[in-house]
Amino acid sequence: MAGLTIRGARKDYGRTRVLHEIDVDVADGEFLVLVGPSGCGKSTLLNMIAGLETVTEGSILIDDVVVDKLDPADRDIAMVFQSYALYPTMTVAKNIAFGLEMRGVAKAERAKAVERVAKLLQIEPLLNRKPAQLSGGQRQRVAMGRALVRDPKIFLFDEPLSNLDAKLRVEMRTEIKKLHARLGTTIVYVTHDQIEAMTMATRIAVMNGGYLQQLGTPKQIYDRPANVFVATFMGSPPMNLLPATVRGEGVEAHLEVALGRDGPTDPAGTVARIARAPLPPNVAPEQVRDGRSVLLGLRPEWFSEGTTAPPGPVWSFSHPVEVTEPTGPDVMALLSFGEAGITEHGNGELTVRLDADHGARPGDVLHLHADLAKASLFDAESGQSLLRPSARTLPGADDDSAASADAA
Amino acid sequence: MSAGAPFPESVPRRVLDADAVDTLVRRRARSHRIGRWVIHALLLILAAFFLMPLVVMVMTSLKSMPEIRTGTLLSLPQAPNLDAWRSAWSEACISISCEGLSGNFVNSFIIVIPSVVLSVGFGALNGYVLTKWRFPGANFVFGLLLFGCFIPFQIVLIPMASTLGFLGLSGSYAGLVLVHFVYGISFTTLFFRNFYVSVPDDLMKSAKIDGAGFWAIFVRILLPLSWPIVIVSVIWQFTNVWNDFLFGVSFAAGDAQPVTVALNNLVNTSTGVKLYNVDMAGAVIAALPTILVYVVAGRYFMRGLMSGAVKG
Amino acid sequence: MRSSARLRRALPLAVLSPSLLVIAVGVYGFIAFTIVVSFTRAKMFPNWDWVGLRQYPRLFGNSRWETAVDNMLVFGSLYILASSVLGLAMAILLDQKIRAEGVLRTIYLYPLALSFIVTGVVWQWILNPGLGIQKMVRSWGFETFELRWITDPDLAIYCIVLAGVWQVAGFSMAMFLSGLRGMNEEVVSAARIDGAPMWRIYQRVIIPALRPVFLTAFVVQAHLAIKSYDLVVALTQGGPGLATQLPSTFMYSTTFTRNDMGLGAASAVMMLLAVAAIMVPYLYSELRAERPAS
Fold first, then answer.
1. What percent of chain B has pLDDT above 70?
2. Is residue A399 part of a domain?
């Protein structure tokens, strides 16, 4: 149970810098998830917290004590590995008790501790088996038991669910969350699966290319991504990014969005169809410049469909449906913008979430209203969000996140 | 302590503050440094242990006999000269003739080269057939062939001697080449078979579809990517055949004897005063080719060793 | 058309046939031949005077053979033990991220490239009672140091162990090193986090996990030990007297020098049985383990 502070941490391998200037403050009892694609540096950062890797620059503090020069054994942390890393020649009981044994705990005490953990994780019948005789899920529990039994200050998880099948993964996710609720220990959890991040974290640190992209609550990350990477990495299907241009200044400012050359009134596709959209209300005023290329970010569920526009700032437009994908709970409608929409951030398609009973068919024209109060706007070149910092929190969002740091 | 944690007291805790951390770090760093010193020292001692005989061998071969008698094993040669080498090469008396090791050195090459070519060639073909032209019982046949790697050669000495006599090959180069071929084929087949097993069968299928036949596939497709294993097999066979003694002493006579047999005769059966420098020079001569191969292609040497030890 | 298809199918077997023939005769045929000879009274040449199993009791009662077997057990167990332990130690040392690892590995392994004759000849010189190690250590100030093992019938066998281990330890080192390198890194990390000092990690986690390597190293080295011939011939010629006689030297001298071929054949068969006793169970268990994967 402790707070963790990572200050200005950098990691170099020889001349290659793999982690740049990471600053994270984890409060006591938080569940922090480090998420990002392979190679983004999340595992390296976790290993640095554990002491399995050295810190090239910067420092790591547990409970305000600088620990980055300490051996892993002295940091009072425990770790669950992706491959579970159970000791292959020892029984489950010995595996769990090993850490206690190394710290000189008496045999009777060890046995008691092992039993308590086994009961908590429901692995009592497995205590005398060897790892090779266990299934993946069972091994995972034993690995967690080994970490739990020492009651450390911080739990570290390195992609522990990656080797499990989908069903087991969902089960274990809930179990880990329940354990966290029950024990209240600080957890740092690494995964490449953004669903795991969203469902389990109290706060998420999105990483890419060795940089911290954004640090915030799941809601902040989802609703107010700090840049294009976060916007497209988190959430499935990813956020739509529509190329647009800012036109006008001040109160006159608006967006011109290219809806392609295949409009319903122009089957030959000779006329560029430009829609005029209002500027999202949360854009920082100083970022508004005539002629600026931007990307309008709209998640599929931020559209409503119908003849009447909902109240609030909206952008209404009509467009034919190209493909529908029923997912069960809803229907995803794909609209095509032709060549005009093809950029490095998208293939010229807009995905819109409709009710399962909507009944739209390919070729039907949808009358869409995009909720601009939720929309994001990104600079087309840098990918950075152009929204006002104070708007990074949404009405009704978690309170302490107003001061959350994010590297931009 | 965490609220709701089921383990209130079991683990001994260390109170961590800045001072405690400092002491820990310093203590660990010191023991780590001592550890590194010990490790390096041990490695150096071991290196000395392994190098010492080589050093002694070379140095002794460069000394004169009086110097050897007055000095010690590791004393440096005062006036290093190649007299002992010259003697070992062309003058030393081995059993009846006094012509040194030069003839035997050449003999070894005459024996080794055809043996290597034959056993590697057939090994490659065998590996090819066993992995790419599956027939029922292919694994069983492989097992049968493999057995030759394990037998103690004493078990075949008697019949081989009779057979060579029967074929009129006793004591000749051809006889020894045949012997080395027979007992080398098991190893080379093992190497090539294991190598070709990992070549994807899809290569074969597309070649067959393209109309390639048995030989075409072998020559055009498999051989070009076989270089690593060819080198491994050649080095393995070269080393084993060159270093062989048992077959040499059993089946080669007089003029046809390989250098290992001659060296042993020189050192252990010559009469008269023991000339240690000549003995060592002879050892250097006998060892030179395989040491050179090792130095140049050590990586492949290793690979051969490892795959020889890891069965089927 | 049918004949060419049959020819095509026969081609692979035809290609295999020289090797199969050669092995059938040279390995299986010859083994059978030797076994048969061991049932005869052959002296200088094979003959067919059948005596059944009588050569075997003759063999077991032969004092030279007894010495050879005793020596084999002493030599074999020491040789296997010493090279395994030394090899493991070297592998662990080399696994510690040493900068000069490549150079050191080359040094530890080069003896494997040498003929046993060269090894025997060189070590014979090094262990020379008057001019070898004894003289060298005395010259360093230890006036009473003695190392005359090679002339001592009771101790000469240890000279062979020494030279043999020197030659072969590198091999077990290579096997252990690749075993160490193939281990799951995360298990070691877990042990570090659990608070185990490095030596403990080796003792409780790493070395137990190397059990299969120990087994393979044992089998290969046992095999080498049984076949040892060249080394003994070059180092001690089986002496002093018969003190370092091994089954392999017994077989050779009995067959070709003492012209007692039947007895020699029997000793060769015993050697084969010894090798089979080790290899057959090992191969059987290896093949069985592999079967599901293949």
1. 93
2. no
Between residues 75 and 104 of chain A, which touch chain C (CB distance below 8 Å)? 77-79, 81-83, 85-90, 98-99, 102-103
Interface ipTM above 0.95: no
Q: Is the pLDDT of residue B178 over 90?
A: yes
Query: Which region among A185-194, A256-265, C228-237 has the lowest average model confidence (pLDDT)?
Result: A256-265
Give one DSSP letter per residue of chain B, joined into a string.
Answer: --TT-S-SS-S------HHHHHHHHHHHHHHHHHHHHHHHHHHHHHHHHHHHHHHHHHHHHTS-HHHHHHS-TTSPPSS--SHHHHIIIII--BTTB--TTHHHHHHHHHHHHHHHHHHHHHHHHHHHHHHHS--TTHHHHHHHHHGGGTS-THHHHHHHHHHHHHHT-TBSHHHHHHHHHHHHHHHHHHHHHHHHHTS-HHHHHHHHHTT--HHHIIIIIIGGG-HHHHHHHHHHHHHHHHH--HHHHHHB-GGG--HHHHHHHHHHT--SS--HHHHHHHHHHHHHHHHHHHHHHHHHHHHHHHHHHS--
**Against a cut of 0.95, is the pTM above it?**
no
pLDDT in tens, B139-171: 888 888 888 888 899 999 999 998 998 888 888
CATH number for the domain spanning A378: value is 2.40.50.140
Q: Are B7 and A69 within 8 A, CB to CB? A: no
Closest CA to C55 of C276, C270, C274, C272: C270
Domain that includes residue B76, residue range: 18-81
Residue A90 included in any domain: yes
Task: Tell me whether strands A16-26 and A4-13 are parallel, antiparallel or unpaired.
Answer: antiparallel
User: Could you give the percent of chain A with pLDDT greater than 90?
Assistant: 40
Nearest-Cα distance to chain C for B4, in Å, is: 23
| Residue C199 confidence (pLDDT) | 87
Q: Which domain holds residue A349?
A: 242-387
